[in-house]
């Protein structure tokens, strides 16, 4: 599943450099996650790094982007150019 940042974000800048897919960017008011780049850290880490580091726990599953693990792995391979098996 892709994740999203809620409006409780305090713009602390901590999560953005932690994302292995460069999916996090500064939006108009708060940080946002590009759902087409978020793999929930699958392929890189065991758990979502943005959630691990966020001090106010304002990152949640995006209700409109509930992909399966296979879809997330496919996205990981697409983003990293490492083939499509797995
Ligand atoms: Fe980036 Fe991982 Fe957070 Fe998705 S879960 S936005 S890939 S750090
Ligand atoms: Fe916002 Fe949390 Fe990211 Fe900080 S770590 S910028 S509070 S989403």
Summarize the structure.
By secondary structure, the protein is of the alpha+beta class. Helices cover 20% and strands 14% of the residues.
Largest sheet report: 2 strands, antiparallel
What proportion of the residues is helical, as a percent range? Answer: 10-25%
What's the end-to-end separation, in Å? 17 Å
For the record, the CATH class is Alpha Beta
Order of helices and strands: EEEHEH
Name the beta content range: 5-15%
Low-confidence stretches: none
Number of helices: 2
Helix and strand content put the structural class at alpha+beta
Shape: globular
The CATH level-2 architecture is identified as 2-Layer Sandwich
**Structural domain tally:** 1
Task: Report the count of strand segments.
Answer: 4
Rg (C-alpha, Å)? 12 Å
Structural notes for this entry:
With 86 residues, the protein is of the alpha+beta class. The chain has a single domain (3-80), classed as Alpha-Beta Plaits, CATH 3.30.70. Helices cover 20% and strands 14% of the residues. The protein has helices spanning 49-53, 69-80; strands at residues 3-5, 24-26, 31-33, 59-61. It has a two-stranded antiparallel ribbon with strand order 1-4. β2 and β3 (31-33) form a beta hairpin. The longest helix is centred in the C-terminal third of the chain and has 12 residues, at 69-80. The mean pLDDT is 94. Bound molecules: iron/sulfur cluster (2 copies). One iron/sulfur cluster is lined by residues 3, 18-19, 21, 23-24, 33, 38-41, 48-50.
């Amino acid at each position: 599943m892709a994740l999203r940042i809620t409006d409780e974000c305090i713009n602390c800048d901590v999560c953005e450099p932690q994302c292995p897919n460069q999916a996090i960017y500064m939006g108009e008011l708060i940080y946002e996650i590009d759902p087409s780049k978020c793999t929930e850290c699958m392929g890189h880490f065991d758990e979502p790094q943005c959630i691990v580091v966020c001090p106010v726990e304002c990152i949640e599953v995006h209700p409109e982007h509930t992909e399966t693990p296979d879809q997330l792995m496919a996205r990981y391979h697409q983003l990293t150019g490492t083939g499509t098996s797995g």
